[in-house]
């Protein structure tokens, strides 16, 4: 936001690094999906990335936004054995978690519980603002912004799921063991 309270708009050319631009677009797309889809279902305002709004023209950027909308719509509109629920286990207000709504067997890929990921530079992260949904690749040691319904899975030292890569920019989770009804779905 600007000092006048109006959204700050940026153009493609304002981003010094292409990877930061993609990560920023993912943040904006995720904020929009949360606001128009998930928050209405939960009845709360979940996390926000507080990234400036954009006027992007290229088709790659429009594809990132479109794909993020599809991810949330698939998650909310398809019959899946899990849901996102409110919780306040941590200090944050309006936290959320993913909970099984029925028994899920071991070695099942939860395709709708996914998210897009794009690399970013150190300059992109703002502590306490957009640093809550990042992952570091064990393959190339790069940091990635990782957003979608999967970002509501909380950490556990004894998780019941693990990462499952679908494409270079899309990952979901696979069960490590049976998950029972009302059990929280977790990752390491």
From TrEMBL:
GO cellular component terms given for this protein: nucleus
Highest taxon in the source lineage: Eukaryota
Segments crossing the lipid bilayer: none
Database matches in InterPro entries: SET_dom (IPR001214), SET_dom_sf (IPR046341), Suv4-20/Set9 (IPR039977)
Gene3D superfamilies hit by this protein: SET domain
Domain SET: 73-188
GO molecular function annotations of the record: histone H4K20 methyltransferase activity
UniProt protein name: SET domain-containing protein
Organism: Acyrthosiphon pisum
